[in-house]
């Protein structure tokens, strides 16, 4: 399932670009969709691997400043932090990409990546919340309603909706392709005198 792994890693890297010094904040509304598309419908080990690769792609660049304390510290921190998206992806279970799956995924993201990640280990490491790049944007206006977690939840709901739309569009294209193939087969059968 190399495409799943590549999509997850690329999505993590895209999410890192939403944070300083790049500051492409809109990517928090897009990048998590790639992880969902990679993980939905995959076996447990593939989901966990996708989450871990997403974490490496995200936390590697995001935490690159930690290398000033030593490369070993940076590697250890990136590997430790990558366990959180791996746990998130694994927790998706047998999700296939329905509206209910998208809502559950949004809640799981906030629980695992914002609540647990910000508190564990050793008091947590809150860097990388989806709400952070949206501060100072119109979407930051959600913060008074529930803090950074509310902004992160909104961002992930948008990303989940995007993943659903891509999944539906892919299914529709597949269905139309099958219809076209079937109609060609019917036309060929009629032409041959069946």
What does this protein structure show overall?
With 194 residues, the protein is mainly α. The protein has 6 helices and no strands. Helix 1 (2-16) packs antiparallel against helix 2 (31-39), helix 1 runs parallel beside helix 3 (44-62) and helix 3 (44-62) runs antiparallel to helix 4 (71-91). The chain has helices at 2-16, 31-39, 44-62, 71-91, 99-116, 143-191. The longest helix is centred in the last third of the chain and has 49 residues, at 143-191. Helix content is 68%, strand content 0%. 40% of the residues are buried. The protein has one domain.
Present the secondary structure layout.
Elements: H1 2-16, H2 31-39, H3 44-62, H4 71-91, H5 99-116, H6 143-191
Helix pairs in contact: 1-2, 1-3, 2-6, 3-4, 4-5, 5-6
Give me the Rg, rounded: 20 Å
Number of helical segments? 6
Poorly predicted residue ranges: none
First and last CA, distance:
41 Å
Overall number of structural domains: 1
Categorize the overall geometry.
globular
Averaged pLDDT: 84
**Largest sheet, if any?**
none
**Total E-strand runs:** 0
β-sheet strand percentage: under 5%
Class derived from helix and strand content: mainly alpha
Assembly status: single chain
Query: Element order, helices and strands?
Result: HHHHHH
What level of helicity do the residues show? 55-70%
């Amino acid at each position: 399932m190399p495409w799943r792994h590549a999509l997850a890693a690329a999505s993590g890297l895209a999410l890192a670009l939403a944070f300083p010094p790049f500051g492409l904040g809109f990517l928090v509304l897009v990048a998590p969709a790639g992880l969902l598309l990679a993980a939905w419908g995959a076996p447990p080990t593939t989901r966990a691997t996708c989450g871990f690769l997403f974490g490496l792609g995200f936390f590697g660049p995001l935490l690159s400043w930690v290398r000033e304390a030593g490369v070993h510290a940076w590697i250890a921190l990136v590997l430790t932090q990558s366990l959180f998206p791996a746990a998130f992806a694994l927790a998706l279970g047998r999700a296939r990409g329905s509206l209910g799956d998208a809502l559950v995924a949004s809640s799981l993201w906030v629980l695992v990546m914002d609540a647990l990640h910000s508190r564990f280990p050793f008091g947590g490491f809150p860097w990388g919340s989806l709400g952070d790049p949206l501060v100072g944007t119109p979407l930051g206006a959600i913060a008074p309603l529930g803090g950074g977690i509310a902004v992160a939840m909104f961002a992930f709901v948008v990303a989940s909706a995007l993943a659903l739309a891509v999944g539906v569009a892919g299914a529709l294209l597949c269905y139309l392709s099958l219809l076209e193939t079937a109609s060609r087969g019917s036309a060929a059968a009629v032409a041959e005198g069946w």
